[in-house]
Write a structure and sequence with these properties.
heterodimer; A: mainly alpha; B: alpha/beta; Rossmann fold; 6-stranded mixed sheet; 4-stranded antiparallel sheet; 10 helices; 10 strands; 25% strand; ATP-binding (chain B)
């Protein structure tokens, strides 16, 4: 906890001098000096995280529902579960190489936000599936039996009773994934390119905030700008975590009584 | 009068383990039939055979016939969802959904496609009245069903079942998690409900069976040892094992 506070404090203190309103709304100028702001990278990040969740959430939650509620317990599904767990431990750069080979090259999406988002979705899929599975398994069996005994079909039981009951857990998983998407660099490095320009479409290349920090720190002399960007990133991530806590606590209250 | 439900030659297996052995038993229309017996004798399994809740367990297999109004509920072309609408169930642990009281009761009707708010209001009020819960919750219908006491939760679950207008209500030890006062209220409620519904109740509480039921079946390790009028089973049991059980010599 102390270490965490130290890291966050250090970055914010180092980043603060370089921070200003102008910094947020001007695009990076590029060059060795690392002049300019971070406007285009903020926009790219929003596109990237939004698109990633758009792809990730339906597939991930759908897969988890299938695995928990529908899939029979046989060799194939045990293999799928094993695969999901294994994929969760694969380094992100390997997903990056896979994304480069499939999305950038084979499917001709080139270095683009789309390629990056698809790759991130692959990277985070095991995380979201596991989180959703846990949330679904935590729903008492008696809810399922109760719903089925009232003449609900399996699908009605899932959509009207089980999913709502599991929603706080699932929401936490989704926000966790959003946080990971924000902070990811390695797999984006090889799928989004590093263009600092304002993205024109989802097929444009671009830099997310985290990637920008990496470029600033390794290819320019602008350590202060890197720190300022990192500070912005950290504030967003801390905010997201706060949101997660807020959501799960509110749901808890709503479910376990009270008004 | 023709029994509402007839069980004919039912054998039940979990994988290779036989849980019920050649059961023949009736559940008369608009009467309360109790199934008693020691733990693990198969009484819950027998109850769940009536609305095919055993189907949800893997490795479960049933032979024989369960006839609801002379129609075999295990025939391949029977609609299980429709069966469970006709044969409602109340569980051992009260299991309200994590939703408001209103939404709990309205759940069944909504699943049947009723969306008109006025109709739902009507059904919810009527069902809660029938379950003797209305007066306690009428001002708090938006409150979570889980905020109620155990006894209230169980009556909420009964209201939830009544809302789909079943013909039969199965109760699987509905009072075992409740205090004596709540238990008494549920038993009173059962007497009112039997005017309109056929009720089957599993209980390990023999006093409850003697007090509340019209017919009793005694199960022992998967065999139906004795079945008859509750008064006769408890005053003049024909089988020695029944007598031993109801006098508390084992179980």
């Amino acid at each position: 906890m102390l270490v965490l506070l130290l890291i966050i404090g250090y970055i914010i203190v180092r980043g603060l001098p370089g921070f200003s309103w102008d910094f947020l709304i001007t695009p990076p100028a590029g060059g060795l000096a690392g002049e300019g702001g971070i406007s285009s990278t903020i926009v790219t990040t929003l596109y990237l995280v939004g698109l990633t969740l758009l792809i990730l959430v339906p597939v991930g939650i759908g897969a988890a529902i299938y695995l928990v509620e529908y899939a029979p317990d046989n060799r194939l599904t045990r293999f799928i579960r094993y695969g999901v767990q294994t994929l969760a431990g694969v380094p992100s750069i390997l997903f990056g190489l896979f994304g480069f080979a499939l999305f950038v090259t084979a499917l001709h999406f080139r270095f683009s936000i789309l390629s990056g988002a698809l790759t991130l979705a692959c990277l985070l899929l095991p995380v979201l599936i596991t989180a959703t599975e846990e949330a679904l398994k935590a729903v008492p069996r008696s809810y399922r039996a109760g719903a089925m005994a009232l003449g609900a079909t399996k699908w009605q039981a899932v959509t009207h009773v089980i999913l709502p009951a599991a929603l706080p857990g699932i929401a936490t998983g989704v926000i966790l994934c959003a946080g990971r998407a924000l902070g990811e660099t390695a797999c984006l490095y090889v799928t989004m390119g590093g263009s600092a320009a304002m993205p024109e479409s989802l097929l444009s290349g671009g830099r997310s905030l985290a990637l920008h920090v990496f470029y600033l720190a390794t290819e320019t002399n602008a350590m202060d700008k890197a720190m300022a960007t990192a500070a912005v990133l950290i504030v967003i991530i801390v905010g997201l975590n706060g949101l997660t806590n807020f959501i799960s606590r509110r749901f808890q209250k709503r479910i376990c009584g009270g008004v | 009068m023709e029994p509402k439900i007839k069980i004919r030659g039912v054998n039940f297996f979990y994988h290779r383990h036989q849980v019920l052995k050649n059961i023949n038993m009736d559940f008369p229309d608009r009467q309360i039939t109790a199934i008693i017996g020691p733990s693990g004798c198969g009484k819950s399994t027998l109850l769940r055979a009536l609305n095919r809740m055993n189907d949800l367990v893997s490795g479960a297999r049933l032979e024989g016939e369960v006839l609801l109004d002379n129609e075999n509920v295990y025939s391949p072309n029977l609609d299980v969802v429709n069966l469970r609408k006709r044969v409602g169930m109340v569980f051992q642990q009260p299991n309200p959904f994590p939703k408001s009281i209103f939404d709990n009761v309205a759940f069944g009707p909504r699943m049947l496609g009723i969306t008109a708010q006025s109709r739902l209001n009507e059904i919810v009020e009527k069902s809660l009245h029938q379950a003797a819960l209305w007066d306690e919750v009428k001002d708090n219908l938006h409150k979570s069903g889980m905020a109620l006491s155990g006894g209230q939760q169980q009556r909420l679950c009964i209201a939830r079942v009544l809302a789909v207008e079943p013909e039969v209500i199965l109760m699987d030890e509905p009072c075992s998690a409740l205090d004596p006062v709540s238990t008494m209220r549920i038993e009173e409620l059962m007497q009112e409900l039997k005017q309109n519904y056929t009720i089957a109740i599993v209980t390990h509480n023999m006093q409850q069976a003697a007090r509340a039921s019209d017919w009793t079946g005694f199960l022992l390790t998967g065999d139906l040892i004795e079945y008859g009028r509750t008064g006769e089973i408890f005053s003049r049991p024909k089988d020695k094992r029944t007598e031993d059980y109801i006098t508390g010599r084992f179980g």
